[in-house]
Amino acid sequence: MQTRLETALRRALEGTGIPGVVAMVVDADGVRAQVALGHAADARFSLASMTKAIVSVGALKLVEQGRLALDAPLGAVLPALAAPQILVGFEGDTPILTPASTPMTLRHLLTHTSGFGYDHVQAEVGKARRTPPVPGTFDSITMPLLFEPGSGWAYGVSTDWAALAMAAVIDEPLDVWLTREILAPLGMHDTRYGAGDVPLLIRGEGGVMAPFPAFSLYDESHEFIPGGAGLAGPVADYARFVQMLLRGGDGMLSAEMAKAFATNQVGALRAGLLPSVSPWLAQPFDPLPGQHCGWGLGTLINPEPGSDGRSAGSLSWTGIANTYFWVDATAGLGAIVMMQHLPFADPAALAVVRAAERAIYA
Description:
The protein is an alpha+beta fold. The protein has 9 helices and 15 strands.
């Protein structure tokens, strides 16, 4: 697999302008293959939304400790969520709002069925705000809902709100708790909040890559520690998180909770489709074209085998700087493929991930 994966990645990178990729394949007990092209194997990448799965596991750990509940109204923990408003339309440029009738819960937040969105994903969010908020502020995650909680699926700031719920019950900074309770026990010693050390690039006119200011969505001046992004770390660290999931929780979560994490929680709702308002930042994304994917308690779940090899029921997600992972319990392996450039879902980056997957399962 090692030689096959390296050959596939070298070919996939040719002529793309992508300066490098680091990939790793693991099973429950060890490393099956590792390839580093253009970047050091231990380079720290900005994980962006791959932070979400880690923070979601942390939230579930607090549920198991009885400090949070999946289905209790969150208004008692977070008063800001006690009476959310739903955006039902516009009168000119003025948003028309109506009170939500369904109490917001942690399950809604972890499954992205809360109704919260993202400015760069759903056009209605930016229109309702009028003025773009400053990243890292409470204003950046304060918005009307796109629908009644539980009635739809929309990718957005839900995991940031889940992180605020966690912070409300642990009585210490979330980054301190997350390091002690999740990252350190898993051996993820080089993963922490802040920017990575791999330069962030952006594909400009004519496909040319150019430097882009690094962003972490977190620094000491921010008003809260996010749950939806902000961690940076090397591929090998994230592989340890993937191995924990392959081992069914491995003491981090109970076997029952790990099973719930990996089970579709959104019923017939279709998860994973991401439109785009800002194609320079993120292209529209369909993670598994043609599949009606579900969502567990922190990741996407594909109901059918993937066209490039992964099994039905695999867990997966990604980060905006073109970092990707999946966990295939049926095949007994997981994979992490990390690049560091914009826009997200760049066709060349997706081709690199597909080439890696085909080589892994060949």
